[in-house]
Design goal:
Layout lengths: L3 E8 L6 H8 L5 E6 L3 H4 L4 E14 L2 E7 L8 H7 L4 E4 L6 H17 L3
């Protein structure tokens, strides 16, 4: 019998840990599309940012495989959110609770994903 395959999107605002989350859970070498940041403010938070997606996979057991797709957090790459959301079974919204602006920015991301899929 083939295992059940589900797609989970990992989303949230800039610099909230999406790439780290996917990397830490994936059982395969993750695909990461990070590039260096040029903006001084952004570079003060982290050195790289996701521009397309992060991908990882977890084999929970013989009957279940989970594909993880991390979204870019910067609004200029938000066109990828809809692309990555296609066929998703659910999403995880991440925030960096040490940065108040992350929590505020997460509301925008939440409303976007809520509007396209009721999961």
């Amino acid at each position: 019998m083939k295992p059940r395959v589900i797609k989970i999107v990992i989303t949230g605002p800039f610099a909230c840990g999406k790439t780290t989350f996917v990397k830490s859970l994936s059982e395969v070498v993750p695909i990461v599309t990070d590039v260096g940041l040029g903006n001084f403010f952004e570079k003060s938070i982290k050195r790289f940012t996701t521009v397309a997606l992060d991908y990882g996979r977890i084999k929970v057991d013989e009957d279940l495989i989970v594909h993880l797709f991390g979204t870019p957090g910067q609004l200029r790459f938000s066109f990828m959110w809809r692309i990555l959301a296609r066929g998703m079974h659910g999403y995880i919204l991440m925030v960096d609770s040490s940065r108040p602006e992350s929590i505020e920015d997460a509301l925008y991301v939440y409303n976007f994903f809520k509007s396209i899929k009721d999961v």
